[in-house]
Amino acid sequence: LQGYASEMDNPNLVHLIPSALQNKKEILFGNLPEIYYFHNRIFLKEIENCIENPELLARCFLKRKEDLQIYEKYCQNKPRSEALWRQCGDSIFFQECQRKLDHKLSLDAYLLKPVQRITKYQLLLKEMLKCSKNSEGTAELEEALATVLDIIKSVNDSMHQIAITGYEGDVSELGKLLMQGSFNVWTDHKKGHNKVKDLARFKPMQRHLFLYTKMLLFCKKREENTDGHEKTASYSFKNSLKMSTVGITENVKGDNKKFEIWYNGREEVYIIQASSVELKNTWISEIRKVLT
After folding, report:
1. Domains in the chain: boundaries
2. Which CATH architecture best describes the domain 6-162?
3. CATH number of the domain located at residue range(s) 171-291 in this protein
């Protein structure tokens, strides 16, 4: 932050800043200042206080459960930050900042650190759990690990959510994103869609589903190359079902990985095939919670 973000306000370097980067500090760095402040002023001190009593570490994570959501915000901005970096990363401005700091790695390596940090927390807690089987504080460690894993899941889900295209509404109004994943989907519409019904028996559609508390979205995954870099996925919106109007059939004859979601008294039926029975059961469990 000091060697790059603050230098964007340095009058001696302003002329080196590429035009694409003008007034884009918040996009490039996201809420990194917020993460830095939280760790420097609060979390680091609390963790250091546990050096003599490591069994208290779990409580730090449980106490700061809400604060750790700042990572989700950071990761949601990451694709925008990376796109901006691809435009400006090789500019003289960044080269000059890197030279002054005498860093071997360029800024993008450091912008990845918060993403890596949250996954390191789960590894730390897993290691501590291994060493503290059935001792005092084990239950708290398990709860702390579940908290961190939940944050990682939210981060992962939100990264997929921001790639949805073509949805006309506002996804933030659909309630909490509970699950997302890819499935084979067959459709069976009762009203005047005989062709659809005949086709439905054969070839499935590949669909990426987003389950919210208020809505289930069906999207088609598309992968695009970005300027010779790795492929980035986007999810093209196809249709949606209001959760207040759907029903579910947990088992479909002949395949224990399939379940049905139906709409309007089975007028529209969506047969959904998961990649495993475990995944199917997890989705059914979440859908049941929404419906009850």
Report:
1. 6-162, 171-291
2. Up-down Bundle (1.20)
3. 2.30.29.30
CA dist., res. 93 & res. 7, Å (int)? 9
Strand order in the sheet with 177-189: 164-165, 229-242, 215-226, 205-212, 177-189, 268-273, 258-263, 246-249
CB atoms within 10 A of CB 275: 12
Q: At what angle do helices 138-161 and 70-88 cross, to 10 degrees?
A: 40
pLDDT (tens place) for every residue of the chain, 292 residues total? 788 999 988 888 888 888 888 888 999 999 999 999 999 999 999 999 888 888 788 889 999 988 998 998 898 888 889 889 988 989 999 999 999 999 999 999 999 898 888 889 999 999 888 887 767 778 888 999 999 999 898 888 888 888 899 999 888 889 889 999 999 999 887 665 554 444 445 789 999 999 999 999 999 998 876 555 556 788 999 999 999 999 999 998 889 999 999 988 888 899 999 999 999 999 999 999 999 8
Q: Which residues of 198-223 are buried (b: 16+ CB within 10 A; e: fewer)?
A: eebeeeeeebbbbbbeebbbbbeeee
Give the whole-angstrom CA distance, residue 256 versus residue 277: 7
Distance CA 76, CA 81 (A): 10
Cα 133 off chain centre by: 31
